[in-house]
Design brief:
mainly beta
């Protein structure tokens, strides 16, 4: 699910603009994917949220967006990592996020 968001007071408005599906693998800290389907979508959802420090699936430091409810059908998670370049020496020792 690819999305953007905007905050309005204590709520976060999630704008879902695309769904992408496929196979994802994590091998020695490297994520690879084989895309199976991709389609546009236009939906807005208002949610409670929290942004905290954490780690992504590869164990790298990341800012985490935690939503107050699950928004992806079939996915048992409500946390998302912000993608960004790592600073020198920033790779985390942990391989998987807590939680």
């Amino acid at each position: 699910m690819r999305f953007s968001w905007q905050t309005t007071g204590s709520a976060l408005v999630l704008h879902i603009h695309e769904y992408v599906s496929g196979r994802w693998n994590l091998d020695d800290g490297t994520v690879t994917r084989q895309q199976m389907d991709r389609h546009a979508h236009d939906e807005h959802i208002s949610l409670g949220y929290q942004i905290t420090a954490g780690t992504n699936a590869g164990g790298d430091p990341a800012s985490m967006l935690r939503l107050d409810q699950h928004v992806i059908r079939g996915v048992n998670s409500n946390r998302f990592a912000f993608e960004r370049e790592l600073a020198a020496g920033e790779r985390a020792a942990a391989k998987y996020p807590a939680g």
